[in-house]
Amino acid sequence: MSDPLIRIEGIAKRFAGRDGAVSTVFEDVHLSVEQGEFVCLIGHSGCGKTTILNILAGLEPASGGYVFAGGREIRGPSLDRAVIFQSHALMPWLTVAGNIAFAVTSRWPEWDRSRVREHCQQYIDLVNLTGAEKKRPAELSGGMKQRVGIARALAIQPRMLLMDEPFSALDALTRGMLQEEALRICAETRQTVFMITHDVDEAILLADKIVLMTNGPGARIAEIVVNTLPRDRSRHSVHKEPHYYPIRNHLVDFLVTRSRQFNEARPASYDPKHPPVVTPGLSETLPAPAAAASIPARPAEKAVVVSLRH
Ligand SMILES: Nc1ncnc2c1ncn2[C@@H]1O[C@H](COP(=O)(O)OP(=O)(O)O)[C@@H](O)[C@H]1O
Ligand SMILES: [Mg+2]
Known about the structure:
Layout: E1 6-16, E2 22-33, E3 38-42, H1 49-57, E4 64-69, E5 72-73, E6 81-84, H2 96-107, H3 113-126, H4 142-155, E7 160-164, H5 172-189, E8 192-196, H6 200-206, E9 209-213, E10 221-226, H7 244-265, E11 277-278, H8 288-294
Parallel strand pairs: 3-8, 3-9, 6-7, 7-8, 10-11
Antiparallel strand pairs: 1-2, 1-4, 4-5, 9-10
Helix pairs in contact: 2-3, 2-4, 3-4
The chain binds adenosine-5'-diphosphate (ADP) and magnesium ion (MG).
């Protein structure tokens, strides 16, 4: 397998409190994201998910450890890593097309206006906003604003898309539609994505692998769940897949109980450099490091399994 697109090596984040005591939000976090992979990070509020995403975006430094993108250490923001936040962060005085064009001209300042317009239109069409080009953010619904954010991020053709709970502020119907669109767009563009969510079903629908973080302080990656459902899944069919409930139950069980007990109940074999890789619903078992090394970027139906029930 080629080098991962993102390599996180032992990062930690610490803050000094008012009394001078240092609190550790998370530590010893190791993770790789392969080219073309869709990775979801799940964990309770406050465990440090947004902080990890900000570190990947180059918006804030880690207190320890290293993060590499394409083999180079991340030292600041880059147009190679586009971020989509929970709120849309559009420029209110610019139209839909103007917001996207702003990003595109930052990426390719040498392009003339017609080339920029043509390029933007492709991405406006991709997110189903055709016809809304001239509207300003105030005239758009929440779902449409998020679509503009997605189009803007994709239009600069980043190597990696970083999304922080991008659909959580939307109503359930709109959220479902945007999840389906994200699935389609990622299948079409083979976009590499790192996304934070606390919606278990969203993670199962979208992710190739789901990274589970324990509660803070001192949060860690407890394990990595490989999504063994077929890639051509849809929101309406996903629950009919035989592995759906085993995966879902595993995630819910983690969030409800194991995420907070992890530090006390951690198995002696736990190695933060190789968090256990699990495939709930499959029974074959291999030792974790061997399995971790052999997990394909796009897990096939018969993905190698790894143990790791506590
Ligand atoms: N600038 C800061 N100073 C002190 N603590 C911070 C700061 N930024 C974030 N934190 C703390 O770090 C923890 C993780 O925050 P965050 O990454 O936003 O978590 P999540 O996204 O998982 O909810 C929180 O407990 C938060 O209070
Ligand atoms: Mg957050």
